[in-house]
Amino acid sequence: MKVKTKSGFECEVNEHKFEDWRYVEAAVKINGTNPKEILEGIVFVVPFVLGEEGKEALMKHLADNNGIVSSASVLAEFREIEDLVGKKLKKSKPSQA
After folding, report:
1. Which end of the chain is less packed: N or C, by CB atoms within 10 Å?
2. Which residues is 62 bridged to in the sheet?
3. Helical (H) or strand (E) element with 10
């Protein structure tokens, strides 16, 4: 599935990765309050979901003029990717009435 963030980053995402237990474990960390666990989670999920090429494309997209990529920008961009995938999945599933 293709997604495009507000900042213009486009990527191909395998939506089945979001059902993988390893992703679920990392997502719990990302959405927690412990800063160390949040970073551990995002370090795992970005290459897991986007692949190494997607990760590198994201780093290039988010790098500032000095080539620095802030962890906050990676986390925000990935959370947006998660949200976009979730919305697309909800639209694609038939409603249960």
Report:
1. C
2. none
3. strand 10-12
Sorted by where each begins, the domain ranges of the chain are 2-92
21-30 vs 71-92: helix axis angle to the nearest 10? 130
Find out whether 46 and 75 touch, Cβ atoms under 8 Å: no
Q: For the segment 63-72, what is each residue's pLDDT rounded down to a tens digit?
A: 999 999 999 9
Q: Among candidates 33, 41, 46, which has minimal Cα distance to 77?
A: 46
What is the spatial distance between Cα 29 and Cα 75, in angstroms, rounded to a whole number?
12
Q: Which residues contact 7 (CB under 8 A, 6 or more apart)?
A: 61, 62, 77
